[in-house]
Write a structure and sequence with these properties.
Layout lengths: L1 H9 L1 E7 L4 H9 L4 E8 L2 E7 H10 L6 E8 L1 H8 L3 H17 L5 E5 L6 H10 L13 H11 L3 E9 L2 E8 L13 E5 L3 E10 L1 E2 L6 E2 L4 E4 L1 E3 L5 E3 L3 E17 L1 E7 L4 E8 L2 E4 L11 E12 L3 E21 L2 H19 L3 E13 L2 E13 L1 E5 L3
Parallel strand pairs: 5-7
Antiparallel strand pairs: 1-3, 1-4, 2-3, 6-7, 8-12, 8-23, 9-11, 9-15, 10-12, 13-14, 15-22, 16-20, 17-18, 17-20, 19-20, 21-22
Length: 393
Amino acid sequence: MMKRIVNLLKGEVTGRVESGFPERVLNLCAEYAVAFWDIRWESPVAFTFTTTRRDWKRLRKLTKRIDCDMTAVSWKGTPFFLGRMRRRVALWGSLAAGVLLLFYSSLFIWDFEIEGNKTVSDQAILRALEKQGVGFGTYSYAVNSAVLRNNILLEMPELSYIAVNVRGCRAYVQVRERVFAPEIVSRRDPGNTVAAKDALVTAIQPWDGEKQVLPGTTVREGQLLISGVVQNDFGGVRYLRGMGKVYGRTWYTLQCRVPLTKQVKTYTGDEKVRRAVLIGKKRINFYFSSSIPGDTYDKIVSQDKWTLPGDVALPVTMVTEHLRPYTLTERERAQEEAVILAEKVLSARLEDAMEEGEVLDRDVTWQTEGDTLLVTLSAECLEQIGRFVDAPE
């Protein structure tokens, strides 16, 4: 394979030799080290072979001394290709213009790559960068990383570090999110822990203060559980934070109504494809009308960003939109499907209602009421029911 590539770079010539004594040509090739291959005999006096462009010229000079007819059948390789192209001024001019345009576009930012963020979205970071003048099509050498870092950190307190490094047409943004220190609680401010909801207390863990209930006690919402007002041994009173955790068994009854009919999409089979190209920030549509008949259709958009070998980004993005119209048909919903759907909704509501705990037991029941299904979730949970409140002044 490597030898084949080298020969194509040098240029290959497939020639035909016809002579009364064709072996003389082969003897000349052996005597003067003319390389050849793919020899094929057409007749006792004619054969074809392949050699390099340079050796073909040498062999033509050597065969002038003998009675021989040499004809070039085909040419392959880089020298012949460049020879055919040398007079195509428009082609070379377009190629030069393309190279200059590519070099000019490499001086601007056409792509962003963000890493290190988990809670802060890419869009928020890109908006902050654009607000500081760094966006799609910004001149690369105008980016001052130090000034950019300071301004963005002042604007986005949720970040503790940001670095913008520009390589070619791509800007690499590395961020580190801030870990906020926990709120400092003053032990001098008195308070109490009360019940956040009705429950049966199973365990109480006072951190500071005096517990007011025992395990096995049923409490109501707002009832005092840990008091921050404690009497000392001398008959006086001490004011503490009254903090701690209280675990109790709680009961929930949640309901949800699900219609027994649903609307199903039925695609018509028609599909409209629209294409456009984004050059920088300018969009060029390859379709005449942007109106879409009807409102019931699915729109699937795909973007193909053009890159050169070596992952060099170009300011060109091909946009393809698939429009699939459909009609809505009302159908009956199976009871099992309605129960599963309602159970998912009620389970999410149950998790939101519990602050810290687990579900010990659950039961789902349902009954049909007209064209709806009433689903009831009954659950027994073990959760932390204590809520700290500041002591009244």
